[in-house]
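DATA SHEET
Item: assembly model
Revision: 1
Owner: S.N.
Input lines:
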Amino acid sequence: MSADAVVIGAGLAGLTAAIRLAEGGLSTTLVAKGVGATHLAPASIDVLGYAPALVESPARALPAFTDERPDHPYARLSPRIVAASMDWLRERVPAISYTGSLDENLLVPTAVGVAKPTALVPEAMAGGDLRAGGRFAFVGLRALKDFYPAYLAENLSQAKLPSGAAVEARAVELRDPGDEADVNPLGYARQFEEPGFRKAVASELLSRVEPGEAVGFPATLGLDNHRTVWRELQDLLERPVFEVPTLPPSVPGIRLFRALRERFRQAGGRLVMGPTVVGADTRDVVVERVVVQAAAARPATHEARWFVLATGGFAAGAIHLDSHGEVWESVFGLPVAGAPGAEPRFLPRYLDDHPMARAGLAVDEVLRPIDARGRPALENLFACGAVLGGAEPWREQSGNGLALSTGFAAASHILERVS
Amino acid sequence: MATLQADVLVIGGGSTGVGVARDATMRGLSTVLVDRGDLATGTTGRFHGLLHSGGRYVVKDPKAALECIHENRVLREIAADCIEDTGGLFVTTPIDDPAYADRFVEGCRGADVPVEEIPVAEAIRREPRLNPRITRAFIVPDASVDSWKTVWGCARSAMAYGAKILPYHEVLRLVVEDSAVKGAVVEDHRGGEEMEIHADLVVNAAGAWAGRIAAMAGCEVTILPGKGIMIAMNHRLVNTVVNRCEMPADGDIIVPIRTVSVIGTTDEKVADPDDWDITRDEVQKMLDAGENLVPGFREARALRVWGGVRPLFQEKAEGTDTRDVTRAHTLLNHRTRDGLERFLTITGGKFCTFRLMAEDTVDVLCAELGVDRACRTAHEPLPDSEDRRFYWLGARVAAREENLHRDQLICECEMIPRRRLEEAMSRRATTDLDDIRRTVRLGMGPCQGGFCIYRATGILHQVQRIPALAANGSLLDFLQERWKGVQPILYGDQLRQARLDDWIFQGLLDVGHLPV
């Protein structure tokens, strides 16, 4: 197979880069062994939530943040690019209707009742914005073991918000129809797509919510017909309704994945899901093709002029630490920066800042992985997303923001070179 | 100060202590047991789960071997539900002295340990992952045993006979009057109150901590704390206990238990049973040892590492290597040893011999108190073991299949249904998720609580009606305890799992910013 560009990895970073390359006129193949972190993470775009104190405005905080952390991926991006990537996403997935901006973080409840900072959320999460306080009822679904509204509400009621506003929160446990004891978020999402089910839920709720309360559901409000489900519930309940992300599988993340996949296909992109990229052929400092291997099939190759590595971090298996302490990048064997060569690799307290956590690829100004001497390891290879070192996305609340903006930027750099 | 009166006060809630409490209560003595923490949180809950046939000790420590095989037979009768009858193999690996095998067989015959040599091909057929370069193989009646289940079985039985079992009650001082120990003052760590317990006789079953308790009565008992580390691997790499056919050494046993295999162990003298680390070198040593028994061992996922401290004892044993101290047990009657009445210390020994240790202790205790009643613990089964059916690997799956549509599965790895979890929370009356972990194995599987601990916290908040702040504390404590066990072995696929768990706890839930 031959294309102008090959993107490896189908998480938010890979999909973003692939769509942009295809829209930029390059024939683009996206190869991935499976879905990425979209199915694990909520679909909110967290750009920078903690630095390490609560960040109220990512736009204002980023310059100082990157000055102090020259190895952070954000230090390779201009604030303009980060903002442009957010506008771009908004336009590409209109059905999700992202709201928010870089200027001020929203604060949305997590499933344990922490007010979490995030820059951009799907419209259906925005009703849970806590910045101005308010009154909220959180809905428990009978057979869902992944959401505990009483625990959430009690924590949220004690939240100390920067505005000083108060949150009043309580739980409403539903006896929704059905007889299965154990239904996961995806199962509930499918049930909500049936008009009868959501009407039954709304009518039980109507008598139990109080005036002025916004209603928070676990993120299960439909999949392909999510917008209809969400709007109809708001109409039936005559009040704001919002979703709270909970344990994987992430229903909002699956919606985002599906919307981006559709966008990629519309742009003429070719999606190859299933095979693992097991190696690459390089000549001098140029990648000529990657070799992929599906379960029982013979190895195949994908040739291209440009390659984007969006394979994820340790969690995805893209960066590997073996039992002897050796660290490597799994497709190209690129050098990994920031990995401590000796103990301590991890510190004794779970919530500590662990030395190994920031290990990943170091990149040049245009996001090409560099070798120990600071030169591009391969001239036509660009990297984006969690494979990049220097960040601690979960502690910073920066995961999807990094994926989106570096994916966007990697594609931009390739398109600039093409033209 | 509140007071309590009993015939016997037992200090220490490990296997030996609960064994003594059960035996004494069954002989009609009113008994109180105290432990500074939860039951089975010292050495008992921190070993590899091997029910020894005695094979390991037949050459080096025949007295310990005799005790092991005797008690192996007894525990199979009384604690079947705690035991998986895996059988055991002793194999001569390429690094072992080939001459040892004959001495081993001779030792087994002498110690009455049933042994049978099988062809190497047969051993490999039974355990296909074994090192194909082994040269001899022997089968013995080793098995795996769940120490928590055993200890709680003894405790429940003792309570049914009227014993008071008081976890989280720490001894502050012993009451010594007229050259006799008359009881102890304890502090309730949960309620914060002090209490004086009067007893006709006090048994010090504090294991590796027995020296400290003895010192409170002015007696010098020098315990040699011998640390051993163990690593649980995420597969049944073997389904039979596999031992190296060699003098006891580091990392020479793999025990299949529940859904995992545990490799053990090391033996290193430490100064303080509460203060020691697991080092990178020890972990590497275990992984190398695993490769020798099961090639490819390093590629399997290491789930958790922990250490336990053996309470080794030998009168005048200074400067001894802990590997060379006997595994047989010692009962000290401080009346004859130190001139102090009504005070016994039981130490040394092994988990497998806890019942025998208890029997010996209660025999002497009865003699001291002038009571003449026979021990019955070798014949009366523990609760849930009455039908004498061994635990089997498919037990939880079978139970789950029966309730598939009627109950939620809260911990998928260990297959713990919601009702069972709620019942354990109510029965234990605890708000500590780590106590629940030991009771039902919550969060002990491959994901190490990544998915179930959020659920369990929500359920705990609901069932125990505790403030969210207390639930937050319990959640964070659990995550910290778990981290202690995974941090030294984070590599390969288990590091991937740990990062996924970080995404859930820190990224999705943001637990680092919970109010506490």
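QC remark: The two ends of chain B are 32 Å apart (CA to CA).
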